[in-house]
Design a protein that fits this description.
alpha/beta; TIM Barrel; Type Iii Antifreeze Protein Isoform Hplc 12; 2 domains; two-stranded antiparallel sheet; 12 helices; 33% helix
């Protein structure tokens, strides 16, 4: 049986509502008012969690790292320009929690882990690129809070290494987030079937950190079994910054949450049966055996006296051969459905 993990009062696992994370990341543009506006919009959409990222360029990238092909500046300078001011932590935490949502921020260094733990975050989110920093994982695990572990770029062996290190610290509250680490991710590299693979391999909740354009792939991931959805969120995709272009805007976030909740209800039990809501359609829309002509009492019924059509109040069509050759117990009018007590 798959393990469940609790973050705050939210239970994450199969059969429970999808835990939806609005990932603000660097889309605050180092403006506190913008950060709060993003939070307000995410609250209105009905998400469960607001997430930021806490990093320093000096502990994240060498200054000599060459720039990525899509960027105009090297990673060190890009990160430096988008650092979350750490003095915001408490204010943002309070702002989010007062709205009954969870505040998370991915830590990228040891000080970030301590600072986030001190303000009381209910869990830690580890980014895909940090998956192989086993010492950092060990340090995070020692805080004994649930860990959401993104596994973009990872092999099953690398995931096993990470899980072993976390569990070695007595922490077994782990959620894996499948993802593709390209921004944006084209659909052909997303591999949603890996959600089932990871679930079977590790028997823990599996979510999806979505870097594709639009909201349809996230919705499909829920149908595939994802128990967590993390999606980058912005006020406006045309804003300047590294994460805006592939993020979704407020109206899309609203629709994403609605779509996910609809899919959850649509998943059902897996038992193939008609619902109570369909009973009228069953009775009036299904076909049954009906008199094609007036049939007098005592008449031996022949095939040409019968027709199969709607509604379904009479005997089912599969009993047609059992009606033929029997006598009518009473007068049967044309277009009257045939019931068992008539023959």
């Amino acid at each position: 049986m798959q393990k469940e993990v609790t973050i705050g009062q939210k239970i994450i696992g199969s059969g429970h509502p999808t835990y939806i994370i609005a990932e603000i990341g660097a889309n605050h543009n180092r403006d506190l008012a913008t950060a709060k506006q993003l939070i307000d919009n995410a609250v209105e959409a009905g998400v469960d969690c607001i997430k930021f990222q806490t990093y320093r360029a000096e502990t994240m990238y060498s200054k000599h790292t060459p720039k990525f092909s899509k960027d105009e500046v090297n990673p060190f300078d890009l990160i430096k320009a988008n650092e979350l001011p750490r003095e915001w932590h408490r204010e943002l935490f309070d702002y989010v929690t007062q709205k009954d949502l969870h505040f998370l921020s991915s830590p990228f260094d040891y000080n970030a882990v301590d600072e986030l733990d001190t303000i009381g975050v209910p869990a830690f989110k580890v980014a895909s690129f940090e998956l192989t920093d086993l010492e950092l994982l060990k340090y995070i695990a020692q805080k004994h809070k649930p860990i959401l572990l993104s596994v973009g770029l990872a092999t099953l062996g690398e995931i096993e290494d990470a899980l072993e290190v976390i569990r070695s610290q007595g922490n077994d509250d782990i959620i894996i987030l499948h993802c593709a680490s390209l921004y944006p991710s084209p659909p052909e590299i997303v591999n949603l079937k890996a959600i089932e693979t990871l679930s079977k391999a590790f028997q823990i909740p599996i979510g999806f950190s979505d870097h594709t354009l639009g909201i349809h792939i996230s919705t499909a991931a829920v149908a595939q079994g994802a128990t967590v959805i993390e999606k980058h969120f912005t006020l406006d995709r045309t804003m300047k910054g590294p994460d805006h272009s592939f993020a979704i805007e407020p109206d899309e976030l609203n629709q994403l949450v609605k779509n996910i909740r609809d899919v959850e209800q649509a998943m059902g039990t897996g038992v193939k049966e008609r619902s109570k809501a369909e009973q009228e359609m069953y009775e009036k829309g299904r076909r049954s055996i009906i008199a094609a002509v007036d049939i007098k009492k005592g008449t031996i019924i022949t095939k040409d006296m019968l027709v199969v059509k709607r509604p379904g109040y009479g005997l089912k069509p599969k009993y047609l051969h059992m009606v033929i050759g029997r006598s009518a117990k009473r007068d049967i009018k044309a277009d009257e459905w045939i019931t068992k007590d008539m023959i």
